[in-house]
Amino acid sequence: MHAPLDLRLLATFVRAAHSGTLSATAVQVGRTQSAVTMQIQRLEDALGRSLFHRSGSGVRLNGNGERFLVYAERILKIHDEAISAFSDKGLHGSMTFGSPEDYLSAFFPTLLKSFGSLYPDIEIKVVSAPTVELRTLLHSRQIDLALVSTPNANSSEDIVRTEGLVWVGSKPTLALHEFGDIVPLALPASNAMDHRAACDAMATARLQYKISYASNSLAGLIAVARSGLAISVMTEEAVPSDLHVLNAPLPQLPRLGVLIAFADTERSPAVDAFANHIRSVLPSL
């Protein structure tokens, strides 16, 4: 007779199945890689079956693993629902939430504090990445939900807020001659919407520019803007109080739509609760 399955082992297995690497799984579950390896081995021993093909590049579900994943996700979901239904403390569970860094900086402290006061027993892990990377993580089900940007602020999608992109500098106004008529820009990496929007706007306005600094680190962009060596682009809510929003002669930048996107999997009550909380709170922040 098989021993009862440990829910912690199931949770680790599900994360490993979606991430494809034990190192990423270790970060997500807050354990060392060796501990994750031991947990997977314990689960396989309990089932009497191997669940993964292992290689130097990571792990991949074998036939047993693909069949067991369906059961593991169902067990974890039912467990969370049962605990929530019969607990005086409300919802339980955990999730991994993704967001671009500027949204995290501007909104997440308030969202987390208010949500935590309502649901203190829900654990939220956070992943910071540009929208294009978050879409990939959602597709591979490495994260459960994310705030992502869309270039069409009037999209028919579930837009919960719009955010204006702005030029940011160390001085209140910009004199183009200060840079010799070629404006140095500090932008997110080229796969980010902010980067494309800035370059398109400069090209449309026929202003010469060069990419002096490219990074997905908001702190890095802010530091370069503070130095006065380049002009940066960020969402208006993310602009620190010591920097300035610049207008003419720089061209106007577009507004982005902010929406909630989900992994293609059955959503837990905890994920639905956090998504509803974002819809309720984010528009007024």
Question: How would you characterize the overall build of this protein?
Answer:
The chain has helices at residues 7-19, 22-29, 33-47, 63-85, 101-118, 131-139, 193-204, 218-227, 269-281, and strands at residues 52-55, 58-61, 93-99, 122-128, 145-150, 159-169, 183-187, 209-214, 231-235, 244-246, 255-262. The protein is an alpha/beta fold. Strands 3, 4, 5, 6, 7, 8, 9, 10 and 11 form a 9-stranded mixed beta sheet that branches. Strands 1-2 form a two-stranded antiparallel ribbon. Helix 1 (7-19) packs across helix 2 (22-29). The longest helix is centred in the N-terminal third of the chain and has 23 residues, at 63-85. The chain starts with 6 loop residues before the first helix and ends with a helix.
